[in-house]
């Protein structure tokens, strides 16, 4: 699953286009639909979302690495679990940093006919730079759950894992993609994210895995 520079550029451009298009034309309508039908979808989304929490993947990576380093010594599997650990940590940090930079309110802002929508980063330009920075920081840190919608952390984790599985088991890429899409879609069902947040998570997760792979490629290819 190695691409040329042109393919990477096209991939990034495509996802950025989807993010922008979704933000302006799809996000509000989709979010309002799931908010108004929360009694049907929210419990399903919450249940599926449990499988997208990063601690499952980080824990699996740590346990697998320890087993194949200290007990059943196997360099191939040890490196694969180490790689899996790195991509989860790296993609998670990028996602977390982006959440605090953009400060996007979650779909909850539209509950009960509310109209809160958008990014703190692109608001309050009438404020001075220092005043805007303080307002942004205070708002996000006082309500870290509410203003950390972009990108979706669960989707980032799922698509980092999708890219990982696609590298080592490309024969089943459509299976991995189907599972990843289902898990990511759960974030819409439980009204925790907008569609553009999902696309952003796909971008962060897949690129993070490919970036780490490019740094470990020589070592990993010795074991593949």
Q: What integer value in Å does the Rg equal?
A: 19 Å
> Percentage of helical residues?
over 70%
Compute the number of structural domains. Answer: 1
* CATH fold title: Vanadium-containing Chloroperoxidase, domain 1
Poorly predicted regions are none
Along the chain, the helix and strand elements come as: HHHHHHHHH
DSSP, total strands: 0
Structural class: mainly alpha
- Classify the beta-strand content into a percent band: under 5%
Biggest sheet architecture: none
How many helices in DSSP terms?
9
Can you tell me about this structure?
The protein has 224 residues and is mainly alpha-helical. It has one domain: Up-down Bundle (Vanadium-containing Chloroperoxidase, domain 1), CATH 1.20.144. Helix content is 73%, strand content 0%. It is built from nine helices and no strands. Helix 4 packs antiparallel against helix 5 and helix 5 runs antiparallel to helix 7. The two termini are 13 Å apart. The mean pLDDT is 94.
Chain-wise SSE layout:
Blueprint: H1 5-25, H2 27-36, H3 38-49, H4 54-71, H5 75-102, H6 129-142, H7 153-168, H8 173-189, H9 195-221
Provide tags for this entry.
224 residues, mainly alpha, Vanadium-containing Chloroperoxidase, domain 1, 73% helix
Short description:
It is built from nine helices and no strands. With 224 residues, it is mainly alpha-helical. It has a single domain, classed as Vanadium-containing Chloroperoxidase, domain 1.
